[in-house]
Fold this protein.
Amino acid sequence: MKLYNYFRSSASFRVRIALALKGLEYEYLPVHLVKGEHKADAFARVSPSKLVPVLETDGGELLGQSMAIIEYIDETHPQPPLLPGEAVERAHVRALAQLIACEIHPLNNLRVLKYLVRDLKVDEEAKNTWYRHWVREGLEAFERELARLPASKFSFGDAPTLADCCLVPQIFNGQRFDVNFDGLPRTMAAFDACMALPAFQKAQPSSCPDFEA
Amino acid sequence: MKLYNYFRSSASFRVRIALALKGLEYEYLPVHLVKGEHKADAFARVSPSKLVPVLETDGGELLGQSMAIIEYIDETHPQPPLLPGEAVERAHVRALAQLIACEIHPLNNLRVLKYLVRDLKVDEEAKNTWYRHWVREGLEAFERELARLPASKFSFGDAPTLADCCLVPQIFNGQRFDVNFDGLPRTMAAFDACMALPAFQKAQPSSCPDFEA
């Protein structure tokens, strides 16, 4: 397998975690988002929507969208599972993942921040306030959702799931923008439990071949 | 089953489509987003993250996030399937759905538009330009993704899938803001194929008990 990705992309990071949790090897193909390599003509063959990550299967299929890729990895390499066995539990895990992937992260994408600055003439401080607002508001919602679920070591249950694949990159992302993580005990305990595992260490941005400090 | 939802909410509309395609009956519980009913204390029990839709199962489980709910419905009521049988095909359908649910719709949520106006002091015209920008850009990406897939009546294949559950509400949403849909032949053909089906007609905003013109 090949993974087109960028060390700092949260969505790429999600897939790297899933691959590491499954113990799968892959070829790392960097796409430099800040340099705009995802918009180059050469990349349109890989991703018509000009996004990373893209997983290229051994059969040559090109699969986009991080959560779709992770579900594919989980279906084709079931052990260890990234979703629980019961339909209701699976729904809870997917909802936690989507709370991050659909409610927080899309607002803080590079292209959105660029639009704020370039088109709406938002200054640096207001841009950072926007960023922190959506991360903080979203993580507070995540914490409240966790509080309703049974006590657990990770976001859901005692092993990492799709929800943790989304949570950890979001926390890394928030750390870069000095988001306040106070008052999020279950969320941050799940993050810490993840980061104690070699798979999450191996997948983190600073472990990537294209990492830049 | 009970569905907490709002006639104009795109995410609610996605779930209504899935329920209608499965032929499932449910109790419709309106939550008026514009009046802020989702933020009321009484609703916190239903949705700690203060979002619609929420599906309450017959067992009393409260499930949030539209795509997680649809996967739950598909797992517990498999016919007709909303995802294809092969893992690669499932990945394509989920990616199309997520291209809308993670790349387009989050930027045009009510709370985001409110932030633009209230906090960033964006005027009406710039707000509408923002809205149309993300819908148009996202649907162009959707069209390019479709162009790479085999010819099909719906977004993927010859029956509606999770991708169509996301596409149709996004088009309705864009119509309200006068988005230009020119040059999106496969996308709009899939939309038209969906709207020719009774399930999509039944699920649309104007068919909802809480509809307001």
Remarks:
- Residues 124-148 of chain B form the longest helix (25 residues).
